[in-house]
Amino acid sequence: MPTLQSSPVGFNLLAWSAPISEKMYPMTERLKKIGYDGIECFIDYQDVAAYKQFGEHLRQLGLKSTSVMVMSPEENPASESSKIREQALTRLKEAIDRAQAMGATVVCGPFHSAFATFSRQEPQPDEYARSAEVLHAAGEYAQQANIVLTPEALNRFECYLCNTMAQLEKLVRMADHPNVRAMFDTHHANMEEKRFPDAIRTIAPVLAHVHISENDRGTPGDGHIPWDDTFRTLAEINYSGWMTIEAFSRNDVDFANGINVWREYNDPWDIAENGYKFIKTMQAKYAK
Predict the structure, then answer these.
(1) Are 92 and 111 in contact (CB under 8 A)?
(2) Which is nearest to 210 in space by CA: 195, 223, 227?
(3) Alpha helix (H) ranges present in the chain?
(4) CA 288, CA 121: separation in Å to the nearest integer?
(5) Out of 9, 38, 81, 193, which residue is the most buried by the measure of CB atoms under 10 Å away?
(6) Domain 4-285 belongs to what topology?
(7) What is d(CA 253, CA 269) in angstroms, rounded to the nearest whole number?
(8) Number of other CB atoms surrounding residue 68 within 10 Å
C-alpha cells in the first residue's frame, strides 16, 4: 500500500523564472543536492527544442519533471466562441508536446478556463460543458504522450469557473477521460474551502497532483495552512503522487506583475531548503 513517504517531492522554478533556460541549471543542481525528486517548469511558447534540452539536463541530474501552464482569454476552453475553444485545444496540445519533450509526466494548472478572466456572473452549466469537451479532447492527446492533465481550482480573485474541489471534481467527471485528473493546491484551498479534510476527500477519487503552498506563498510551515489536516488526510486516502512546492517571488518581474505578486515573501532558497525539510518531516509523521 502506498504511503506519504513514497510521494515524490518537487519544486516549481517559478520562484526564480517563468521561462526555462540554461540560467536555471545552477538552481536545478542545488535543488537536487537538497534532495528533491523533481522540478516543475512553466510551459510558455518557447520552441519544443528548449524543453527537450532542459529535460535532458534534468535527466542527467537524475531529476524527474512536471509542468504547469495557464490559458489566456484568447485560449479560453469555456468560451462561447468555437474559434477560441479551438485555440484552447491547440494551446493544450502544444503544452503537451513541450511537456513530453521535457520528459514531464504531469501538466497542471488552471487550464479549464482563462486566467483572471471573469464573466461577472456565476459559472454556467454550458461553460462547464464547453470546458469539459475541450479537456476530454486534450486528454485524448495527452494519453498518447503518457501525460496526465491535472486542472486546478483557483481562488475567487483569479478564477470563477472552479474555486472549490466540489466544482473541480464535477468538471473532471464531465471531462470523462482517464488522463484528465485533478490537483489540490493548499494556497487556494485556504481561501475557498471550509475544511481541508472534506475538500481532499471530495477530490480524492480523481486526485493526481498536489501543490504544497503556504498561505502567503512563502516557506511551507511558516504560515497558517492547516498542515496536519492536509498531510493526515492525504495519508488516509493513500495519496502517493507529487507534492510540489509552488512559491512565488519578484525575481521574474513580468511574471510577478502578471499574477499580482508585489512583495517578497521569503528568499527562494529558504523556501526550497526549509520547505523540503518540512515536507519530509510531515510525510514521516503521517506515514502508515
Answers:
(1) yes
(2) 227
(3) 25-34, 48-61, 82-102, 125-144, 165-175, 186-192, 196-203, 227-236, 253-258, 268-285
(4) 44
(5) 38
(6) TIM Barrel (3.20.20)
(7) 18
(8) 28
Could you tell me the strand order of the sheet in which 207-212 lies? 148-151, 106-109, 64-68, 38-42, 9-12, 242-245, 207-212, 182-185
What digits encode the pLDDT tens for the residues 200-247?
Answer: 999 999 999 999 999 999 999 999 999 999 999 999 999 999 999 998
Instruction: Parse the chain into domains and list their residue ranges.
Output: 4-285
Q: What contacts 17, CB < 8 A, 6 or more positions away?
A: 23, 24, 251, 252, 255
Q: Cell 485545444 sits at which residue? A: 89
Q: Convert the pLDDT of each residue in 42-87 to its tens digit.
A: 999 999 999 999 999 999 999 999 999 999 999 999 999 999 999 9
